[in-house]
Amino acid sequence: MIFEDNLGPDSDAFYNALMNTHEGLTEAQSHALNARLVLILANEIGDLKTLTALLETARRI
Amino acid sequence: MAYDYAPFPYTPPLGLTEPEQRHAIVIVGAGPIGLAMAIDLAQQGVASVVLDDNNVVSVGSRAICWAKRTLEIFDRLGIGERMLAKGVTWKVGRNFHGDKQVYAFDLLPEPGHKYPAFINLQQYYVEQYLAERAQDFPDLIDLRFLNKVTNHTDHGDHVALSISTPDGDYTIETDYYIACEGAGSATRKRMDLPFEGQTFEEHFLIVDVEMETSPFGNHDTPERWFWFNPPFHNGQSALLHKQPDNIYRIDLQLGPDTDPKEEATEEKVIPRIKAIVGDTPFRLDWMSVYKFRCAKLDRFVHNRVIFVGDSAHVVSPFGARGGNGGIQDVDNLGWKLAAILKQDAPASLIESYNTERVHGSAENILNSARATNFMTPKSPIEALFRNEVLKLAADHPFARKMINSGRLSQPCNLATSPLQTPGDAPILPGFPMIDAPLEGSNVTTWLIAEAQGQFTLVTASPTPLPAIEGINRIGINQQADYPCFISVGGHAETRYGTDKIYLLRPDGHVCAVFDTVDPVAIKAAQDRALGATT
Q: Nearest C-alpha of chain A: how many angstroms from B230?
């Protein structure tokens, strides 16, 4: 799992893009979008061991 | 036409008038599991007494989906072809979200198998066929209806039973006591064994309706149709299956807050069915309201008492893993018990039934629990993810695979069991053999039908198979002094490879594979599969 910065100079651009993706949505719509996003990203990563570690990390904070 | 529940005859047992000799095997419960157990043993020359407190087959269709592997086992037990002829063959499942199809799966896309992925057949037919098959063994199967076991005591080297009949009470003794009484097992309760797992809060209504016109509409082929958020039912899900005799199984999810007694009434059920089939005439055949439950015993073997089928483990039904799992228990236990009683194997071999089937049932419970969790979201966030999976599925194949309306019964892989000798081949040790069409001298046959029931060496390589006592031989595309067959359609070569020799257990699971003929290694693998301690 990668804890060090992996987005490089694109961190700000990604964060901005994420916010833009949610623009104009109700909270319920945003939750639904986030759920879809998690599912799509999980498929992109495709490795259960990595995904389990990511899930545990997200839960820990 | 409704099934005719004709009672089986009751005959006063010998034990009422004089003491019976100690039996080798007593099977408690004459449902599909108990009857299959008795037939499996009888085919190996082992006698058993079968006791049941009732005298009719089970009421209502109950277990209807019989998987390919189960049919292959029933083929060995002598009722597979009859089941296939009567049953409704299907292999395609369709999942709908609202009125839109989101995903379809084909459970057996390739030819060259005697049995299809699934047939649907009411449990009462299976029990009837098994009971009739049991009549073929009048000297080996002692079927006693209206014989209720009221108590049993394990004395270490045997079990004593107290039995109640319409003519009074009697006692018998047995070397092994096989509990096949189903989910409510009285044996398990008497022994106060923990039966732990997960109960789901959702109520489900299960209804069988008889109707001339198919509710599948213009779709002629029987399939498994499953709806999330069905347009005709205000609930989470619905399932539709076709059974023989124009009977259709409809499962409707009712939610956690329903009153099961109130729901299982014609008054409540008929409008729900009309919402699906409209004004088409139908007859209600059977209905039941139930909750999903996944639970199992920690151990299936308790000295001389052995639990088989639902008495050992229960799963929620969407996945057809209850009846099918139970028949795999029978398949696993039958040859081991026979080998122990014939002193071909140490008594400790029975422990491998425990290991292998606890593993198998854990796999069934895992899959059933996952399906149930997907079908019955417990919180708003679970419902949210479920709905987004269904939405994504329209455009994204990966999400279609996440849709879980039941992962249908698969044969168990026993690779982790110590009975198997590790090795490498197209079918790995631990997996059940795969069927293939064969041709003998003027006969068309199937590999599974030829091989199952005894230890067998099988090869589709040119290598001659060695003669080893206690091991049958089958050569494919060979000529030799043992049974040889020609492969039809090239399936055997594709499935088994042309450079491997397989040693199969009597239950058709591969227990070892070989690249060369090594009689010592083959014998050692058989000894290992028979539980020899080295």
A: 21
* Minimum distance, in Å, between the CA of residue B385 and any CA atom of chain A: 6
Average pLDDT over all residues of chain B: 94
Q: Where are the domains of chain B?
A: 14-90+115-196+296-367, 437-529
CA distance A38 to B197: 30
pLDDT in tens, B247-305: 999 999 998 888 888 888 999 999 999 998 888 999 999 999 988 889 999 999 999 99
H helix runs in B376-414, sequence order: 380-393, 397-402
The complex's ipTM works out to 0.93
- Cβ distance B398 to A43 less than 8 Å, yes or no, reads yes
**Residue A9, min C-alpha distance to chain B (Å):** 30
The model's pLDDT over B350-362, given as tens digits with 9 standing for 90+, comes to 999 999 999 999 9
Q: Is B370 in the A-facing interface, judged by CB distances under 8 Å?
A: no
Which of B381, B384, B403 would you mutate first to test chain A, the one with the most A CBs within 10 A? B384
What does pTM read for this prediction?
Answer: 0.95
Does B211 reach chain A within 8 Å, measured CB to CB? Answer: no
Q: Which residues of chain A neighbour B387 with C-beta distances below 8 Å?
A: 32
pLDDT at res. B410: 86
What one-letter code names the amino acid at B107? L
* Nearest chain B residue to A44, by CA: B398
Cβ atoms B294, B198 nearer than 8 A: yes
| Inter-chain CB proximity A40 and B388 less than 8 Å | no
pLDDT at B322 over 70: yes
Question: Tell me: the pLDDT tens digits for B75-124?
Answer: 999 999 999 999 999 988 999 999 999 988 898 888 999 999 999 999 99
B133, with CB counted inside 10 A (0-12, 13-18, 19+), is buried
Looking at the domain that runs over B14-90+115-196+296-367, which CATH code has it been given? 3.50.50.60
CA distance B278 to B427: 49
Q: Give a yes or no: residue A32 inside a domain.
A: yes
Nearest to A32 among B384, B399, B402 (CB): B384
CB contact under 8 A, B389 and A39: yes
Q: Could you give the number of structural domains in chain A? A: 1
> B118 and B91 in contact (C-beta within 8 Å)?
yes
Fold that domain B437-529 belongs to in CATH: Glutaredoxin (3.40.30)
